Amino acid sequence: MAMPEDTDPVAARIGGNIRRYRLALGLSQNAVAKRAPGISGGDQVAKYERGEARPRPAAFYGLATALEIEPEDLLDPPQIADARARAVEAARRAARRPPRS
């Protein structure tokens, strides 16, 4: 999908990564907002995910905390973020499985 001409590519990358990690953790936008210092609500998370806004430093660090990642992970290229998000999702699923006897 092509980005509109006025889309900030950094905001789009950060937003895509927020969405990847949020979905990998099985969280709603509202749940992320509740876990993230400096985020007012799910609507704000949605704006970030769509690349409509770039998080300020406090929100950026709050999002990383809420998503259980390092802040720099939000800047990763999509291929790296996809791989990390798949690993997070696999670990989450493994943690929910009952142990084999």
Structure at a glance:
The protein has 101 residues and is mainly α.
How would you classify the helix and strand content by structural class? mainly alpha
Order of helices and strands: HHHHH
CATH class: Mainly Alpha
Evaluate the radius of gyration. Answer: 14 Å
Please estimate the helix content: 55-70%
Strand tally: 0
CA(first)-CA(last) distance: 47 Å
What percent of residues are in strands?
under 5%
Give the integer mean of the pLDDT values: 89
In the CATH hierarchy, what is the superfamily? Answer: lambda repressor-like DNA-binding domains
Overall morphology: globular
Q: Could you tell me the CATH topology label.
A: 434 Repressor (Amino-terminal Domain)
Number of structurally distinct domains: 1
Report the uncertain regions: none
Strand count, sense and closure of the main sheet?
none
Number of helices: 5
What's the CATH architecture?
A: Orthogonal Bundle
Structural features:
101 residues, mainly alpha, 434 Repressor (Amino-terminal Domain), globular
Topology:
Blueprint: H1 9-25, H2 29-35, H3 42-49, H4 57-66, H5 78-96
Helix pairs in contact: 1-3, 1-5, 2-3, 2-4
Report on the architecture of this protein.
With 101 residues, the protein is mainly α. The protein has a single domain (9-94), classed as Orthogonal Bundle (434 Repressor (Amino-terminal Domain)), CATH 1.10.260. The protein has helices at 9-25, 29-35, 42-49, 57-66, 78-96. The longest helix is centred in the last third of the chain and has 19 residues, at 78-96. The radius of gyration is 14 Å and the shape is globular.
